[in-house]
Write a structure and sequence with these properties.
By secondary structure, this protein is α/β, with parallel strands linked by helices. It contains 16 helices and ten strands. Helix content is about 45%, strand content about 10%. The structure holds 1,6-di-O-phosphono-beta-D-fructofuranose. 1,6-di-O-phosphono-beta-D-fructofuranose binds next to α14. Its main location: plastid.
Length: about 425
């Protein structure tokens, strides 16, 4: 073996060993100088990447024709979904719904990762099979939402910040033991509210701190600063804000020594505000979104997994398809919640007889988005349901009223507090 190869291997192995020793010594122990020093050696970082990549499923998540099923709705948001089909927000109903989704036969053909809410990570099917094992059987990597929801940001323009850094390292270690291999943190930025410099900085710093802590605990972080659809601004304004937000996110990711090769991004697509007078075509959305990403995201990042943000199922799939009409520096795919689940919920209606049909609806959406990831989706056979938009203004239950609502939810629920989203 060539000399450089040995030196690479030795440096990487020693670095890894020291880091493991430090972990065994316990989180409270001071990190030995050698460990701190080794983190900065390029070969150690590469070794870590290989481990993250192979052992933690990074490669398999960002693989052709695959994307993420996001079912990590906090209890409050899940309650809204269940209410839309007349069901109460009880643990039994949430379990029944997640069981339907996670036991869909053949799901792994199109889905490589599933983001779970904490309750689901520790839950089992009614027959006693752990949900994480259902996922593993389909070769789907289990992930976990680790943020603790949004609360008002004092001193801002009626904006919010995302909680969850306190105790995150120990929680992450527990989630890892339970089978999670990647993490997600969603914060939001509102264009009509500014966004203020304070809100953007807070969002970026929180995401970067979370990403560093996740990587340190063996979870691959998904970085999600959602730029809300609210507003009547043109697409150019969204581009401007998205560029500003992502510049700041990458600045703080670098400051926190986050390994870019070991993260995935979950951006909003660059679209006009939901109340803007003109709609943009998928080609225009693809052009603006890819322009923004190419200006801001280094090619070291392996994958871009979009959120759907209130777009209809069909729109979200068409836009993804448009983005995959030519080669990109990263895997460009989906991590949709509403745009994968809307038809499923409508088909299920909470009735056991409809489970099979609802699972077929999920497979159909997953397949459509898998084709869009490959750039070969056609919308010809889409149903009317798939064409229905799901955007709900944040001021009707989110951003502004949400300030009060969020506090109420924290007290009642103590978990996954508020949310500012279109649902
Ligand atoms: O319940 P929360 O914390 O508000 O999260 C809302 C949802 O936003 C997402 O990040 C994106 O969802 P959409 O694709 O529906 O926009 C989901 O992963 C998550 O379930």
């Amino acid at each position: 073996m060539q000399g450089w190869c040995w030196s690479w291997l030795m440096e990487a192995m020693i670095g890894r060993w020291c880091h493991q020793r430090w972990k065994i010594m316990g989180r409270g122990a001071k990190k030995p100088f050698l460990v701190q020093f080794l983190r900065f050696l390029p070969n150690y970082q590469q070794m870590n990447l290989l481990i993250l990549g192979n052992k933690h499923g990074l490669k398999s998540i960002a693989s052709p024709g695959h994307g993420i099923l996001a079912i990590d709705e906090s209890n409050a948001t899940c309650g809204k979904r269940l209410a839309s089909i007349g069901l109460d927000n009880t643990e039994v109903n949430r379990q029944a719904y997640r069981q339907l989704l996670l036991t869909t036969p053949g799901l792994g053909e199109y889905i490589s990762g599933a983001i779970l809410f904490e309750e689901t990570l520790y839950q089992s099917t009614t027959d006693g099979k752990k949900f994480v094992d259902c996922l593993r059987d389909e070769n789907i990597v289990p992930g976990i939402k680790v943020d603790k929801g949004l609360v008002p940001l004092p001193g801002s323009n009626n904006e919010s910040w995302c909680q969850g850094l306190d105790g995150l390292a120990s929680r992450s270690a527990e989630y890892y033991k339970q089978g999670a291999r990647f993490a997600k943190w969603r914060t939001v930025v509102s264009i009509p509210c500014g966004p203020s410099a304070l809100a953007v900085k807070e969002a970026a710093w929180g995401l970067a701190r979370y990403a560093g802590i996740s990587q340190d605990n063996g979870l691959m972080p998904i970085v999600e600063p959602e730029i809300l659809l609210d507003g009547d601004h043109p697409i150019e304004r969204t581009l401007e804000v998205a560029e500003r937000v992502w510049a700041e996110v990458f600045y703080y990711l670098a400051e926190n020594n986050v390994m870019f090769e070991g993260i995935l991004l979950k951006p909003s697509m660059v679209t006009p505000g939901a109340e803007h007078k003109e709609k943009a075509s998928p080609d225009t959305i693809a052009k603006y979104t890819l322009t923004m990403l190419k200006r801001r995201v280094p090619p070291a990042v392996p994958g871009i997994m979009f959120l759907s943000g209130g777009q209809s199922e069909m729109e979200a799939t068409l836009n993804l398809n448009a983005m995959n009409q030519s080669a990109n520096p990263w895997h460009v795919s989906f991590s949709y919640a509403r745009a994968l689940q809307n038809s499923v919920l409508k088909t299920w209606q909470g009735s056991p007889e409809n489970v099979e049909a609802a699972q077929k609806a999920l497979l159909a959406r997953a397949k459509a988005n898998s084709l869009a990831q490959l750039g070969s989706y056609s919308a010809n056979d889409e149903s009317d349901e798939a064409k229905k938009g799901m955007f709900v203004s944040s001021s009707q239950g989110g951003q502004i009223l949400g300030v009060v609502m969020v506090v109420a939810v924290v007290e009642e629920d103590g978990e996954g507090a508020g949310n500012v989203e279109g649902g």
